[in-house]
């Protein structure tokens, strides 16, 4: 039975029980985090390769630069301003992912970046964009299970990434 969400340490222990009972699953989670955080910039680079090979004009490429970049800057400033502590700082939990930084938990910059990159891919190919969006959701889950973000951190980041990515539709 799921514990009360008012005690995040109990909820986190319940959530990670399938991992802590089998240590090899923790290693898989850690690898998934590394793979996904590496894959998203690679996917973003592939977007530019696609645009280059399609001989897209500079005017057509510009939104793929300024929409993610401006969102990332504004997002980072907001995150710095609110400076929410990470779960392992506030609760007695042992995160499954290695993270030494403090604060800046809300919203998740990794998930926002992955989502905005996925929105870029959606502009080029909806099926590939949806695959990329699934990767961003998987990253969100990994960040929660890893103990470096609360569910609200990744949910807010994902929604903000979708909203900011909607700027593509306005152009």
Automatic annotation (TrEMBL):
<keyword id="KW-0812">Transmembrane</keyword>
<feature type="domain" description="Phosphatidic acid phosphatase type 2/haloperoxidase">
    <location>
        <begin position="61"/>
        <end position="169"/>
    </location>
</feature>
<dbReference type="InterPro" id="IPR036938">
    <property type="entry name" value="PAP2/HPO_sf"/>
</dbReference>
<feature type="transmembrane region" description="Helical">
    <location>
        <begin position="35"/>
        <end position="53"/>
    </location>
</feature>
<keyword id="KW-1133">Transmembrane helix</keyword>
<dbReference type="Pfam" id="PF01569">
    <property type="entry name" value="PAP2"/>
</dbReference>
<feature type="transmembrane region" description="Helical">
    <location>
        <begin position="111"/>
        <end position="142"/>
    </location>
</feature>
<protein>
    <submittedName>
        <fullName>Phosphatase PAP2 family protein</fullName>
    </submittedName>
</protein>
<feature type="transmembrane region" description="Helical">
    <location>
        <begin position="59"/>
        <end position="78"/>
    </location>
</feature>
<dbReference type="InterPro" id="IPR000326">
    <property type="entry name" value="PAP2/HPO"/>
</dbReference>
<keyword id="KW-0472">Membrane</keyword>
């Amino acid at each position: 039975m799921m514990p009360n969400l008012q005690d995040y340490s109990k909820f986190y222990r319940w959530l990670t029980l399938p991992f802590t009972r089998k240590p090899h699953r923790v290693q898989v989670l850690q690898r998934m985090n590394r793979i996904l955080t590496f894959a998203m910039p690679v996917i973003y680079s592939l977007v530019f390769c696609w645009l280059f090979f399609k001989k897209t004009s500079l005017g057509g490429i510009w939104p793929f630069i300024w929409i993610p970049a401006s969102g990332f800057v504004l997002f980072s400033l907001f995150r710095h301003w609110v400076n929410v502590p990470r779960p392992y700082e506030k609760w007695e939990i042992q995160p499954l992912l290695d993270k030494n930084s403090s604060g800046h938990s809300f919203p998740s910059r990794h998930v926002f970046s992955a989502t905005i990159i996925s929105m870029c891919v959606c502009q080029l190919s909806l099926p590939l964009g949806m695959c990329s969006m699934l990767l961003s959701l998987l990253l969100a889950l990994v960040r929660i299970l890893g103990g470096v973000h609360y569910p609200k951190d990744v949910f807010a980041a994902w929604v903000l990434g979708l909203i900011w990515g909607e700027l593509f539709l306005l152009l």
